[in-house]
């Protein structure tokens, strides 16, 4: 069972806590690392600038991703785990880099030598309060402008052990979080039990960032992908899409995050829903956007759907084995000219496929190309709603998801829009939402979830 939510909702059992953090000498030497020519990815640069603009917030503004799993073993080999953690950090070069913003505003990457990386265990003894454990994890994991913005830990409960990885969003995406778990499991098996190395070679994230920038540097306002993005935004009155209902956001301060997760389907109904999609030459993901569009039409009476979805930009086997932030945000836009799911899903599928074609054209780069007097109303720090779909059944080892207790959590950071994750697991499909924690938003999100679930349920029922 995999839980999804905010770190505030993680309730680890009490136990003896060990945390792996960078040794003081390692931190000092890393601070002296020279500048490396590989730029941040477009996604990383926007993230860092946003974090820097809000450095004065009285809470962690940047994203912290926490992955946990409870193992049915109480005899964790700490020396083997120490070797596994350091091997993991050396396997993925994103973890050997840190960033600084120069006085001229340029963001520079620094690369830490491999022999500098040294994470060591610190024993904190027995902790019997889940809130204290949560607070400890967040306090011992620095923010994105420090090299060691990731930490590891174990809570030994006697007959079982909860292992966790906490990493700033700067270095990871959804697939990266899964890869981190599987890599650490394989590395620990190698170090503790001399199991052969089963990991495929991982690509360099620095190489990916360099290639991305080389590709987008050649773009101009006349490039086909740029022109398509601008056509979509201008067709939306010069604005990015926004959530279709009121959110009641405060304008005099930060809006913190709230979370809800519901079950959409048991797997039998998910298969029925997928069957209905395929009957219209579409896939499950097309059905998701058709359901979203029909729900919005019901709630607002609108006749046009414009949403965003994150797409993995990994293109090779080595990149699919690499931890990093390999994501592009792409549009899904189409007219809502029918209340028939069969017709809507066919249109939604084509719109999704058209959106994927824009993945190499980073929207961040599109905004860089706009003249100062642009007619588009897109401000620094822009936010837009998104719907993400992950079919976790594609992951190696997915057959164990229902046998272990794990979790994927985010910190309660700032929230300006509604972010939806639909995750298809082996036994069920869930819908999770992160949104501004306001009374108005709670009501609006409730209405939105109810409308979407009604579409999903009706389609599955009709396919029985």
UniProtKB/TrEMBL annotation:
SUPFAM superfamilies: CoA-dependent acyltransferases. One of its GO terms (biological process) is lipid biosynthetic process. GO terms for molecular function: catalytic activity. Residues 74-351 form the Condensation domain. InterPro entries: CAT-like_dom_sf, Condensation_dom. It comes from the Bacteria. This is Condensation domain-containing protein. The lineage of its organism: Bacteria, Bacillati, Actinomycetota, Actinomycetes, Mycobacteriales.
């Amino acid at each position: 069972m995999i839980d999804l939510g905010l770190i505030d909702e993680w309730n680890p059992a009490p136990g003896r806590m060990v945390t792996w953090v960078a040794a003081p000498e390692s931190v000092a030497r890393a601070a002296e690392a020279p500048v490396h020519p590989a730029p941040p990815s477009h996604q990383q640069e926007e993230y860092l600038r946003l974090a820097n603009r809000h450095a004065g917030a009285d809470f962690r503004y940047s994203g912290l991703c926490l992955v946990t799993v409870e193992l049915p073993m109480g005899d964790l080999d700490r020396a083997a785990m120490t070797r596994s953690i350091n091997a993991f950090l050396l396997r993925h070069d994103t973890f050997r880099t840190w960033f600084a913003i120069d006085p001229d505003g340029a963001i520079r990457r620094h690369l830490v030598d491999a022999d500098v990386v040294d994470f060591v265990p610190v024993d904190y003894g027995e902790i019997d309060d889940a809130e204290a454990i949560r607070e400890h994890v967040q306090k011992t994991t620095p923010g994105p402008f420090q090299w060691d913005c990731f930490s590891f830990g174990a809570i030994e409960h006697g007959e079982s052990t909860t292992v966790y990885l906490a990493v700033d969003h700067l270095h990871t995406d959804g697939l990266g979080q899964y890869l981190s778990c599987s890599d650490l499991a394989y590395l620990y098996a190698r170090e503790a039990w001399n199991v052969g190395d089963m990991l495929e070679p991982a690509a360099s994230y620095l190489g990916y960032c360099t290639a991305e920038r080389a590709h987008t540097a050649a773009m101009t306002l006349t490039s086909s992908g740029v022109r398509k993005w601008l056509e979509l935004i201008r067709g939306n009155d010069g604005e990015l899409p926004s959530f279709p209902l009121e959110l009641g956001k405060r304008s005099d301060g930060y809006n913190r995050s709230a979370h809800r997760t519901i079950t959409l389907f048991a797997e039998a109904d998910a298969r029925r829903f997928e069957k209905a999609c395929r009957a219209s030459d579409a896939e499950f993901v097309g059905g998701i956007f058709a359901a979203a569009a029909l729900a919005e039409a019901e709630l607002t009476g609108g006749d046009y759907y414009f949403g965003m979805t994150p797409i993995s930009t990994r293109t090779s086997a080595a990149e699919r084995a690499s931890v990093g932030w390999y994501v592009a945000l792409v549009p899904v836009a189409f007219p809502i000219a029918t209340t028939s799911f069969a017709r809507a899903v066919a249109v939604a599928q084509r719109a999704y496929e058209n959106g994927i074609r824009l993945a190499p054209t980073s929207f961040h780069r599109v905004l860089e190309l706009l003249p100062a007097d642009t007619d588009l109303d897109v401000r620094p720090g822009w936010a837009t709603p998104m719907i993400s779909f992950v079919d976790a059944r594609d992951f190696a080892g997915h057959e164990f998801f229902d046998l272990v207790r794990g979790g994927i959590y985010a910190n309660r950071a700032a929230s300006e829009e509604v972010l939806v994750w639909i995750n298809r697991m082996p036994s069920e499909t869930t819908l999770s939402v992160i949104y501004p924690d306001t009374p108005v938003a709670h009501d609006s999100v409730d209405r939105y979830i109810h409308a979407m679930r009604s579409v999903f349920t009706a389609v599955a029922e009709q396919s029985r």
